[in-house]
Design a protein that fits this description.
Pfam families: ECH_2 (PF16113). This protein is an alpha/beta fold. It contains 17 helices and 9 strands. The chain has a single domain, classed as Alpha-Beta Complex (2-enoyl-CoA Hydratase, Chain A, domain 1), CATH 3.90.226.10. Helix 1 packs parallel to helix 3 and helix 3 runs antiparallel to helix 15.
């Protein structure tokens, strides 16, 4: 396959190797990459000659910075049809990865955000390094965590998932393991040798040779104040509790949350708490599809991407501008049927 293609697919020694190949864009996902990975998994799951899958990203900056949101922005500004189809196909892929029966080894080095989490963190052998910078930063662009992110966030210990979702702040590889987004820690300097060993010796021997005890999770160390402050029924209540807490990091979290889209924050809180009561990844992805399709019609999705990635003035004008102006009907509208809903 030509090196200039967006996704490289090959089989070596019974290992299906997928390389996300847009290094200048930190391997941000487009429809070609989603379709290529889906096609490869469909072929390999019924091919006895392929025993496992290895997912990696080209370049030095990270596995995947997320979806190609500028393309989604352009779609949302027109009729939204591209965004809807992209999310439909992407979430079907996320579910496929979640139920893929063979070992699916994801090398989650460097930046792994949004859609990058979706193609990696539902696998069954998820490897991070000390350079991993993971996160679900959607609230910063007027969007809501998707790609099965609310499934993982809702199942993290205590309120750590809500903290990650509402701040949108990145977390470390050690944190990712503690939150349930990853399984194994391999030092970055040994990651290439680990990947080679997956191909030559199999993933279990590779893990035995290269995986190490992860560093302590900084988020877990802060769980007392996080659990205390994120128990509120609304984002406004959570902000009040963060600002009232004696821990300086709580004030920092409040300052960060206060910069995010008010409607996206309110919907994210509801989405994570609803996801906790949904039994399967597929059910959560169906909910996320409804929310994403609604988001594409919202003011804040277009405005957030404009401010962060198009004009880059970093000065989004959110509407509604305050949490107080977000009413329950506006939140509920995000969870209405996408007509038709995503099905599996």
């Amino acid at each position: 396959m030509a090196e200039n293609e967006d996704i490289l697919v090959s089989v070596r020694n019974g290992v299906g190797i997928v390389t996300l190949n847009r290094p200048k864009a930190i391997n941000s996902l487009n429809d070609v990459m989603v379709a290529g990975l889906q096609r490869a998994l469909t072929e390999w799951e019924n091919d006895d000659a392929v025993g496992s899958v290895l997912l990696t990203g080209a370049g030095e900056r990270g596995l995947c910075a997320g979806g190609d949101v500028v393309a989604l922005y352009q779609s949302a500004k027109s009729d939204g049809s591209y965004a809807r189809k992209f999310w439909w196909d992407e979430y079907l892929l996320n579910a496929h990865i979640g139920r893929f029966a063979k070992p699916y080894v994801a090398l989650m080095d460097g930046i792994v955000m949004g859609g990058g989490v979706g193609v990696a963190a539902h696998g069954n052998v998820r490897v991070v390094t000390e350079k991993t910078k993971m996160g679900m930063p959607e609230v910063g662009i007027g969007f809501i965590p998707d790609v099965g992110g609310t499934y993982l966030l809702s199942r993290a210990p205590g309120s750590l998932g809500l903290h990650a979702a509402l701040t949108g702040a990145p977390f470390s590889g050690a944190d990712a393991i503690a939150l349930g987004f990853a399984d194994h820690f391999v030092p970055q300097a040994r990651l290439r040798d680990f990947a080679d060993a997956v191909v030559t010796d199999g993933h279990e021997d590779a893990l035995n040779s290269y995986a190490e005890e992860p560093p302590a999770s900084e988020l877990v160390a802060q769980r007392d104040w996080i659990d205390d402050c994120y128990a509120g029924d609304s984002v406004a209540a959570i902000l009040d509790d963060l600002r009232a807490h004696a821990e300086p990091a709580a004030h920092d979290a409040a300052d960060l949350i206060a910069t995010r889209s008010p409607i996206a924050l309110a919907v994210t809180l509801t989405a994570v708490r609803r996801a906790e009561h949904l039994a399967t990844l597929e059910e959560v992805l169906q909910q996320e599809f409804r929310v994403s399709v609604a988001s594409a019609k919202s003011h804040d999705f277009v405005e957030g991407i404009r401010a962060q990635l198009v004009d880059k003035d970093r000065n989004p004008q959110w509407s509604p501008a305050t949490l107080e102006a977000v009413d329950d009907a506006a939140i509920d509208a995000y969870f209405a049927s996408a007509d038709p809903d995503l099905t599996f």
